[in-house]
Amino acid sequence: MSTTNRISYLYNEKVALSGIIFFFTLILFILSLIQFSPPNPSPEDAPKDEFSARRAWKHLEFIAKDPHPSGSKRQQEVYEYLIETLTSFGLKPETQSSSEHMLNNALLKNILARINGENPDGAIILIAHYDSATHAPGATDDGSGVVSLLEVTRALQISGPYKNDIILLLTDAEEDGLIGASTFVKKHPWFKDVAFAINLEMATTTPVFIMGISPDNGWIIKQYARSTTRPFASSILYDVHSYLGYGDDLMPFLGANIPGIGLSTVHVFPEYHTKDDKLANADIRSIQHLGEQTLAFAKHLAQIELADTKEKNRVNFNLWGPVFIHYPQSLVIPMTLITTLLLLAFLIYGFIKRKLRFRFVVFCALLFFLGLFFISLLISRLSEMMTLIIPGENFASYSPHIKNDQFFIFVFVLLAISLTLSLLAYFMKRTDYENILAAVMAVWLICLWISSIILPDSSHIFTWPLLFFIVFVFLDELLHDYVKKRNMGPYVSYILRLAAVLPSLLLIVPLLYLFYLGTALEFVSLICAFTFLLTLLYLPLIKEMLSGKIRRILFVAISLTVLYFAGNMIYFYYFA
Asked: Which of 149, 422, 452, 553 is the most exposed, having the fewest neighbouring CB atoms within 10 Å of its CB?
């Protein structure tokens, strides 16, 4: 091929459009991450019945001066400060002591206060722990939760009266095994009144999500969505949180069959439980989001009936930013069946039009599954190699993160994308595009059925991307001849292809980012597995870019990622 023909090939209309849409999706990728910026803090002179992180921050400046583990002299100072602050709100704080749990020769001391309702059928309890880890000033864990609860309590006291009682519980000895919360559940007379629990944990860097929730949570999700202005939640996070076994003060309440939620950020940051958990590393914006959600939800619950708070689970997720979607878990299987029928219709249409060949579809699907397994295994092994070679001081003591691990995550994800595109380019050279497309959808459908049966609360991550993909790709195929007759060019086709990919970008990219924040390299193989599946859905947008000499770019991308990884390993092994 002459130089002129090569240039003509590279810059023909379809390749140019593919490139434009590819970069447009990169912009959407960036936008999908921007949503994780917490809201700006309200000023100190904000209305008294609203939450102000600036007012809450003043309490944090005192509480997070120094480490204050249970039983320490510094914790006694924090205890006295909290009692004094609650009294200044017009409340009558009480102390629950226990001689059964002596910590540093001091009694365990929970702090309680109560706002009485006018016609209660139960009480809402708001919980945060005021002890810190042994060497941590506790600016985030759980100083941010405590000061948020102080500001929420102040605003609630002003905004009353309420129908239901509101109990404030600042627990002691959470870091020693949830002792304070367990002691309240087992021994305090107020526990018999508790109808709903809200626990506040560390808050830094990201918006606040529901990180823990009781079973049969449909009622909870509906009330949460109605009451909060910036709801952030994802039912897949509950499965991950449960799998990782994180514990907090909500657990004793759930164990006693009390419904409730735990509000927290996803990011288990490297300074967690260390001397660097100080004011400089706390995020006032996350405190604002934590306080806003807690105040709005508590006000709402304080005014409604709490007699029947259990309902079958609801699948829930954010589509983008505050766009919060939730629906009954009972719809999971019907939606999976609808998606299956649509795919069958596409396959039947393809076989009737003789665009599909069964053996090629099956062959491609099998190789995609092998590719998914290979990439997951490869990334897992590379991650293990890295953790063995990198010096121990690079690892955080209580966090899954290591220094600059975002670069390693980037390399692993780039490697997964490059290998996936190479596999697609291999198929594009050997079979028709329609066969590969059908195989991609078949792989996704199998993943959808597995998730719908085993983890129905997480099934949305496969349902909506695949459903939109099938619908718009099918439309693209059906309209192909019509568009060609009308000489409308490739624009209609590319708009439909872009619409097919949009839901997967808006759902999966934020999920991968959350996985990174919460688990870092622990779930890197899962992150790359989802990257593989997401890249497969790009096929309609980039099919023209996967042929000819452009395949060489993929070889270069794979080579660069491998060299980058190898270079870092050599550096850490010999020079770090």
From this structure: 553
| DSSP assignments along 503-559, one per residue | HHHHHHHHHHHHHHHHHGGGGHHHHHHHHHHHHHTTHHHHGGGGSGGGHHHHHHHHH
Structure tokens at 531: 């990257």
Ramachandran region, residue 108 (left: φ > 0; alpha: ψ -120 to 50; beta: rest): beta
Structural domain that includes position 105? 53-311
pLDDT (tens digit per residue) in 430-446: 888 999 999 999 999 99
User: What is the predicted pLDDT for the residue at 9?
Assistant: 47
Angle between helices 405-430 and 358-389 (to 10 degrees): 160
> How many CB atoms neighbour CB 394 within 10 A?
15
Spatial distance between the Cα atoms of 419 and 532, rounded to a whole number of angstroms: 8
SS3 string of 309-375? CCECCEEEEEEECCEEEEEEHHHHHHHHHHHHHHHHHHHHHHHHCCCCCHHHHHHHHHHHHHHHHHH
Instruction: Based on the fold, state whether residues 277 and 334 are members of the same structural domain.
Output: no
Single-letter residue type at 538: Y
- CATH code assigned at 121: 3.40.630.10
**32 confidence band (pLDDT: 50, 70, 90):** confident
The verdict on residue 194 lying in a domain is: yes
Contact 211, 266 (CB under 8 A): yes
